[in-house]
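Hi, here's the filled form for the chain we discussed.

Project: internal
Contact: R.S.
Residues: 405
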Amino acid sequence: MATIRKRGNSYQIRVSCGYDTSGNHVEQSMTWKPDKNMTEKQIQKELNRQAVMFEQACANGQVTTAVKFQDFAEQWFKEYAEIKLKTQTIRCYRWASKRTYKEIGHLRMDKITTRTIQRFVTHLTQEKRQNAKAEDATPLAPKTIKNCISFVSTVFDYAVKQQMITSNPCKNVTLPTIIQKEREVYTVEEIRQMLDLFETEKSEKRQYVLFFTMAIFTGLRRGELLGLEWKDFDFENHLVHVCRSSLWTKEKGMYTDTPKTKSSIRILKLPDGLIAELLEYKDWQESCKAELGDKWIETDRLFTKWNGEPMHNRSPYKFLEAFCKRHNMRFCNVHSFRHFNASAMILNGVDVKTVQTCLGHSAATTTMQIYLHSFQEAQARAMDSVADCIYGSYATDSNPDKKPA
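And the returned structure, exactly as it came back:
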């Protein structure tokens, strides 16, 4: 039976939940605050309804006992994260958990409110980055704060799904705005120059030349490129099946996983020139195998170390950095080739749904958000084409100086 006690403008509802394994009496409580426009009769009716609902929830185990957030989060890592989530995501949440446990890890799940989480956000905005000198210390990036709250919210979502609590306190929290930095992307002229210079690098760095040539023409992520195997190609129809990623973490070393999202498992059409490059590279790799004999470790991977083992994820970055330095070129990171590929498609009139499919994004909205600037530029060009259509020929006829009003 629930007991009700008025506390100022609100009511406390308490329910007995029996005894725990140590013989201690366990109670659950909740606070309900009536709307200021409710009549006394309406308050009593709704209060009784809230009490019955809360009592039923306790009886059905839908309200958590006095479990602390850190204890439950560690259960979540074992019961859900390690089974469902990718290694990189778990790694990100583990980093977030360090700050989170320090701030709210000691609090009971049923005592953490939206206000508690909002105060946590405020604290994070005032915190300085770790491992930075005192004079150079800068506040945490909004993205880091968002990752921390994402971790907390995911844990609470799991608790709701397990019927331990009735709602997620993170739902109405206000987060700092993430300011998108302008991405560094190679221009068409730089890409053409790079492709020309690759010809001078083929004799000694053939695997890297093909890696970045494929990055330019396919827009694949680094891990997807490194995960490619020869059985993924249909040379007759010029197709490649993207179905795995090759990744590395300090804890696991090199490992193979599925691509980032379900939509990332896709089939792409390859241009004729790239198919010719692949076949030439395949012959070169076969000659390397023959020279090494038993020392070659067969993995079927395109991009390997000298002995056939999968290439390390850091290796393409190191090559690109040295390549740009040798040829006095501007250096952008490996992922910039994916941005170039996407921008090239958009500026050449490819629709957003096709771009999304080629890039392996889970939704078209993701593509629009990431490449908004490119879509805006493409739209501006489209408007210019209308003006060219209307005025272009007219301006070159008998009135060459005629301009539109």
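Let me know if anything looks off before we file it.
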